[in-house]
Amino acid sequence: MIEVEHLSRYFGSFRAVDDIQFSIKTGEIVGLLGPNGAGKTTTMRMITGFLTQTSGKISIDGKDISENPVEAKRKIGYMPESAPLYSDMIVRDYLKYVAEMQQVDPEEKVPYLCDVCGLKEVMHKNIGELSRGYRQRVGLAHALMNDPEILILDEPTSGLDPNQISDVRHLIKEIGRTRTVIISTHILGEVEMLCDRIIIISKGKIVADSPTSELRTRYGNSAVINITAGGCSSQELAAKLTELFSGKKNITVTPATCAELLKNEEKSGAAAVAVTGEEEIRPVIANEIIKAGWKLYTIKLETNSLEDVFRSLTTDTGDAA
Question: How far apart are CA 177 and CA 193, in angstroms?
Fold first, then answer.
C-alpha cells in the first residue's frame, strides 16, 4: 500500500530525513516513533504530499505521489497534531462543508461520521467551544470524510485527558480494522496498545523497524533477575553467582542493597543478574543458592521495557530534524 524508497528531505543545508526506506501493507497499524525533532512529522508530511521530498520516491498503492498527486492523495486521510478547524463554525455545518468540498454526499456521510467519531452530543455546538478531545474527533471525522484507505495521524491524543485518550484510542483501533493506519506519537504505551508494528526514527534515520511483539527481543534482548536470599550477605551472594557464570560474557552479576533484614535471618543479601539473550538461568540460580545452604526468598525477572529500547536506540544517535 505504501512504499518509501531512499527518501530524504533537506531544509537548506539541514538534513531532516536521511535516506529512509520502508513499506507498509494494507491493513497494518504502524507506530512512527522518535525523539523531538527526529524527522517523524517531516516524513508524514511527505507521505501525505503536503511536503515534497528532496530525493527518493513515495508510492501509494503503486502510484508515485509526485507524478500522480491527486490520485494518490485521494487514498489518504490526514490529521495533523493540531487539527486545522474553523473555530467559528458549528460542527454539523463544518462537516457538511468538508463533504461538499470533497464531493461527498453530506446527507449520507455526515450522520455516519457523527456516529463513528462519537460527535452526536456536539453536532450543534460551535467548534471553538469544544474541548480538545472533541476537536480531535472533529479532525478525525474530517480525515475520514472521503473514506480513505490510508489514515495518517500525527500525535492524535496530544493534550487530551485520560478519559479522552481512552476514547480516541478505542476509536482508532476500530477504524484500523478496515484501513492502513500510521500513528506518530510520543506515548510509548499507546503504541503497544494500538500498533502491529513500530518504526523508530532518530536523527532522520530509521534505527528500528519491527513487529511490536518482537521489538524488545530484536533490539533490547536483555533482562535483569533480582534475587534476595537469607543466610548470606549481598557480597557473598554476588560472588557465588559470579563464579557460577564465569566465562559467560552475556551475564553480569552485581550485589544489590537488601531493603531490610529478612525475617528470622541473621543476615540477608540481594543481587542483580543482567542477562543479554534469551537464556533461562533462574533454575540454575535457585539450585546454586539451595546447594550453598542459603534460603531463596525471591527471584524476580524484569524484562526491558519499550522505553528502555527506545532510549537505547535514540540516545546514542542523538536528536535531529
Answer: 14
For residue range 113-156, list pLDDT tens digits in order.
Answer: 998 888 999 999 999 999 888 898 899 899 999 989 999 998 88
Number of neighbouring beta carbons within 10 Å of residue 49: 18
Q: 289-313: string of b/e by CB count within 10 Å (b at 16+)?
A: beeeebebbebeeeebebeebbeeb
3-state secondary structure 252-289: EEEEECCCCCCCCCCCEEEEEEEEECCCCCHHHHHHHH
Write out pLDDT tens, residues 63-85: 899 998 888 888 999 998 877 89
CB 238 within 8 A of CB 271: yes
Neighbour count for residue 247 (Cβ, 10 Å): 5
Task: Say what the pTM is.
Answer: 0.76
CA-CA-CA-CA torsion sign (117, 122, 127, 130): negative
Q: How far is CA 42 from CA 49, 51, 247, in A?
A: 11, 8, 47
- The sign of the CA dihedral 69, 70, 76, 79 is positive
Query: Nearest to residue 281, comparing CAs of 217, 218, 225?
Result: 225
Nearest to 206 by CA among 43, 1, 61, 48: 43
Location of C-alpha cell 513500530? 198
Residue identified by cell 457538511 is 96
- Nearest of 141, 285, 170 to residue 225 by alpha carbon: 285
Helix (H, G, I), strand (E, B) or coil at 222: strand
| Residues 87 and 128: beta-carbon distance below 8 Å | yes
